[in-house]
């Protein structure tokens, strides 16, 4: 049984950057980032995005801090 891909919230452990990676068709990023676009840190935290996170990211392209 296929598992529906979940949107994920990705945040940098070094700076306060964060963003949403959503599955294709509802994409904010084209691919999950492997490093922070802001500071270049490769230690990113991934966790499931909440519905609120997804909605906010659609309007603003980023999350409230
Ligand atoms: Zn960073």
In brief:
By secondary structure, the chain is α+β, with helices and mostly antiparallel strands. The chain has one helix at 51-60, and strands spanning 8-12, 18-21, 44-48.
List the helices and strands and how they pair.
Elements: E1 8-12, E2 18-21, E3 44-48, H1 51-60
Antiparallel strand pairs: 1-2, 1-3
The protein binds zinc ion.
Zinc ion (ZN) binds at residues 12, 14-15, 17, 36, 38-39, 41.
List keywords for this structure.
alpha+beta, three-stranded antiparallel β-sheet, binds zinc ion
Low-pLDDT parts are none
CA distance, first residue to last residue: 36 Å
Q: Estimate the global geometry from the Cα principal axes.
A: globular
**Category by helix and strand content:** alpha+beta
Order of neighbouring strands in the sheet with most strands: 2-1-3
Average pLDDT reading: 80
Question: What would you note in describing this structure?
Answer:
This protein is α+β, with helices and mostly antiparallel strands. The protein contains one helix and three strands, in the order βββα. It has one helix spanning 51-60; strands spanning 8-12, 18-21, 44-48. It has a three-stranded antiparallel beta sheet, with helices on one face. The radius of gyration is 12 Å and the shape is globular. The N and C termini lie far apart (36 Å). Zinc ion (ZN) binds at residues 12, 14-15, 17, 36, 38-39, 41.
């Amino acid at each position: 049984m296929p598992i529906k891909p979940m949107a994920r919230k990705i945040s940098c452990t070094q700076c306060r950057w964060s963003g949403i990676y959503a599955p294709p068709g509802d994409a904010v990023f084209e691919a999950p980032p492997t490093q922070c676009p802001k500071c270049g840190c490769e230690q990113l935290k991934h966790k499931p995005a909440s519905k609120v996170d997804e909605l906010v990211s659609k309007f603003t392209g980023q999350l409230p801090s």
